C-alpha cells in the first residue's frame, strides 16, 4: 500500500515537471497542472494517514480533552 502511494506520488511529480513548462501556454495545461497538484496532495495525505497508529488515534478520539473557554482567560488569579 505505502509503496503504491510512493510510486503514485513520484509519477505525479514527473507529470508536474513536464506540465510546468507549458502552464503559461494554455489554460488547459494550467487546469491540468492544478488537477495534478491536487491529486498529489491527496496521495500525500493518504500516505500520512497510513503512517499513523490507528489504535492511538482511536484512543485520542475517545478520551475527552479539556477545552479552554473564553471565561477561563478572565478568571482572577
Question: What's the quick description here?
Answer:
The chain is mainly alpha-helical. Helices cover 69% and strands 0% of the residues.
- Count of runs of 4 or more consecutive helical residues: 3
The main pleated sheet reads as: none
Secondary-structure element order, N to C: HHH
Q: Provide the structure class.
A: mainly alpha
**Which residues form runs of ≥5 with pLDDT under 50?**
none
β-strand amount: under 5%
Shape: elongated
What is the rounded Rg? 21 Å
Question: Count the strands?
Answer: 0
Q: Termini separation (Å)?
A: 53 Å
Q: Please state the average pLDDT score.
A: 85
Helix content: 55-70%
Structure description:
With 77 residues, this protein is an all-alpha fold. It has 3 helices and no strands. The protein has helices at 2-20, 27-51, 54-62. The longest helix is centred in the middle third of the chain and has 25 residues, at 27-51.
Observed structural traits:
77 residues; mainly alpha; 69% helix; 0% strand
